[in-house]
Design a protein that fits this description.
With 671 residues, the chain is α+β, with helices and mostly antiparallel strands. The protein is built from 29 helices and 15 strands. Strand 8 and strand 9 form a beta hairpin. Helix 9 runs parallel beside helix 11, helix 12 runs parallel beside helix 14 and helix 19 runs antiparallel to helix 20. The model has no long low-confidence stretch (mean pLDDT 94).
Length: 671
């Protein structure tokens, strides 16, 4: 099933680069750039590119390329499917732990391809999500096995898996903390008289404590050897377990980490102190609230499926108490209703186990073994059906297409690895990977500097855009890569800058620019037409008060219906041909001007302008080469991006066009 996407797209040259399919997640290029750095020695001036030992994904990728005949593009394409498929091992082992291997097999069938798990671990989804739910299932198995078997070796394996997990997926630390705390409480309540209990708690507590990696590993091994030889016994052993637990609770910052995660994904708005910057979480789809049906589909494939899974999990805990350790995984899945899509993946494997157990409970009322297993098989197949249907229809494209990458490949030949390319954060990581250049913002660094880049891309003053570009990049370098907006505007300081006045001076005043140390480029891709209003939001705010400014008008139509009377653009918006007006829902407004932009194979676009009504406030742009329409007011029409990408109108004293094709235009800053 996991290779269906490859079969669907491998024959399409638009998604290929250097003979291989490209990946389909932006974040993957962050880790891939880290592997590039280790393998090719590039990105040496980019402080954001990870080192090889910083993330497990970068580490394993680098060594797979070094030790196998596979190239980097192939490894990052197929590694997600390989790693994530390992989730079937702990799921089957959990079944075997309770003498029900077939039960584990059925659960593994569902858990390994269920909707959300597939989406975030499919071929090409090169991200640490491949470890997100797989590794906790190994931890869950070893913890539960240690309860059932009371073998110190099993507790050691659990501790080592907990030790490794932050290296694989640091963002999931709160989940492992939750599982570890429940395990410790469980052991103290239900196994308090067992000699094994304090031993296991010592090992697990050390594994959970966030201390230096090598020190932690030494402590785990040393503790295991001491406990194995029974050097410490009786009350001293119990006191040592209390001390280990206290050490973890004090230095683990447990509740701070958990609360921080909840705040990050559930509290949205503007910064409350200092300058009031717009928070990026408000614009990230996977971090937004989702309805129950979406959560259910993502976890189990359907609403009835997730209900069955939750009931099954409840019955499972009643019958096999140690499964309470999986509660954080189920809980974080339910939290996705408030926190967003990304949290559904954690609940998928345990939800699959719950669903199959529910089927087993139903089957327990049937005496005939063959009939019972036939029923369980059929119900499992029904549970699989919506997930398989989803996989077949899930035709997600690659992050960039071949022509876009070809543009970047040609462009990077004339640049230095010290140079910067200013672009919206969505394109940061891919730009690293395909150009070797540095950026101000990216998929993991979308902080207050979103305001800076948004202002550059959306301002109506190209002089301001040029000056701010130079100042921002040189400030970033000179400040040793501090947040530019906070540095320039002295955020949270007594002499905080009047931002509106500062920007006004960049437009019209005399400004002494910092000395140029690197070249700076501006990247204007075609695909940003679809998100340009979102880009504008980040600078369309009064930073002093936090009040949003009036939203400029912008409407982008990739599809339309042309009739003799009107061109229907969707969402009750139409161009009324005879009247020279726009129909915007129930109201009509005159068209100010109609632009037809024709892009020849080479050379500057040809622009035909028809002035319609001086009373109009909205202009229509027909992008003939793309067969798309754009409706904009004067503010958006005169923005840096629209003028320089669509019309190629730019101040030659400030910018030089260095790359131009239908997919992107790249300018070099001349000041």
């Amino acid at each position: 099933m996991r290779l269906i996407w490859v079969y669907q797209f491998s024959g399409n040259p638009a998604f290929m680069w250097e003979g291989q399919l490209m990946i389909n997640t932006n974040d993957g290029y962050f880790f891939a750039s880290g592997a590039q750095k280790a393998l090719e020695g590039i990105h040496e001036f980019n402080p954001r590119v990870p080192e090889v030992l910083q993330y497990g994904l970068t580490f394993f990728t680098t060594w797979l390329v070094k030790l196998t005949p596979l190239d980097l593009n192939t490894v990052i394409l197929y590694l997600p499917a390989l790693i994530s498929s390992l989730v079937v091992i702990p799921m089957m082992l959990l079944g075997r732990l309770y003498h029900a291997t077939v039960f584990g097999f059925f659960a593994a069938l569902i858990g390994s391809i269920a909707w959300s798990y597939y989406n975030r671990t499919m071929v090409g989804y090169y991200d640490t999500d491949m470890f997100a739910a797989m590794a906790p299932m190994f931890i869950l198995y070893f913890l539960m096995a240690s309860i059932k078997e009371e073998r110190l070796n099993t507790a050691l394996y659990a501790s080592l898996m907990i030790f490794v997990y932050p290296f694989l997926y640091d963002a999931g630390r709160a989940i492992v903390y939750g599982m570890g705390i429940i395990y410790i409480i469980y052991m103290y309540i239900f196994h308090r008289k067992d000699e094994f209990t304090p031993k296991s708690i010592i090992l697990i507590s050390i594994g959970l404590t966030p201390i230096f990696y090598l020190l932690k590993l030494v402590l785990i091994i040393a503790a295991y050897m001491i406990l194995k030889r029974d050097i410490i016994k009786g009350k001293n052993l119990l006191y040592l377990s209390y001390a280990s637990l206290a050490f973890f609770l004090i230095f683990g910052n447990i509740f701070g980490i958990i609360w921080s995660k909840i705040q990050t994904y559930s509290i949205r708005g503007f910064d409350e102190e200092g300058l009031h910057f717009y928070q990026v979480k408000q614009t990230v789809r996977e971090a937004g609230r989702i309805p129950f049906e979406v959560m259910a589909n993502r976890i189990s494939g359907s609403s009835i499926g997730v209900i069955i899974s939750l009931i099954g999990y409840l019955l499972l805990v009643i019958r096999y108490r140690p499964f309470i350790l999986a509660l954080p995984l189920i809980g974080i899945g339910i939290f996705s209703l408030w926190g967003g899509l990304r949290f559904t993946v954690y609940a998928v494997p345990i939800a699959a186990i719950g669903a199959v157990y529910f089927f087993y409970v139903l089957g327990s009322f049937i005496a005939n073994t063959k009939v019972k297993y036939t029923l369980v098989s059929l119900l499992t197949a029904l549970m699989l059906y919506p997930n398989i249907t989803h996989i077949i229809g899930y035709k997600v494209p690659t992050v960039l297409n071949h022509d876009e990458v070809e543009t970047l490949h040609r462009f990077q030949a004339g640049t230095s690895s010290k140079d910067y390319i200013i672009a919206w954060w969505d394109y940061g990581y891919p730009l690293w990977y395909y150009t070797g250049l540095n950026t101000l913002i990216d998929g993991g660094k979308h902080n207050h500097d979103n305001f800076i880049v948004s202002e550059i891309l959306t301002t109506t003053s190209q002089l301001e855009a040029a000056r701010l570009s130079r100042i921002a990049v040189e400030t970033y370098i000179a400040s040793d890569y501090e947040v530019v907006a906070d540095t320039l505007f002295k955020n949270h300081q007594d002499d905080q800058v009047d931002v509106a006045g500062y920007l006004e001076n960049l437009r019209y005043g005399n400004v002494e620019l910092p000395t140029k140390t690197v070249d700076v480029y501006l990247y204007f891709p075609l695909r940003m037409l679809g998100i340009f209003p979102t880009v504008k939001v980040f600078s369309s705010i009064d930073l002093e008060t936090g009040e949003s400014k009036a939203r400029p008008f912008y409407y982008y139509a990739e599809r339309f219906q042309d009739t003799p009377e009107a061109i229907h653009l969707g969402n009750r918006i139409s161009i009324l041909k005879q009247e020279g007006q726009l129909q915007l829902g129930a109201r009509k407004t005159p068209i100010k001007a109609f632009y037809t932009v024709i892009n020849p194979e080479a050379g500057k676009p040809r622009v035909e302008v028809q002035n319609v009504s001086p009373m109009g406030g909205i202009s229509v742009i027909f992008l003939a080469g793309y067969n798309r329409f754009l409706l904009v007011d004067d503010e958006m029409l005169n923005s840096t991006y629209i003028q320089m990408f669509i019309f190629e109108k730019y101040d030659t004293d400030l910018f030089e066009l260095v790359s131009s094709d239908p997919y992107a235009k790249i300018y070099r800053l001349k000041i």
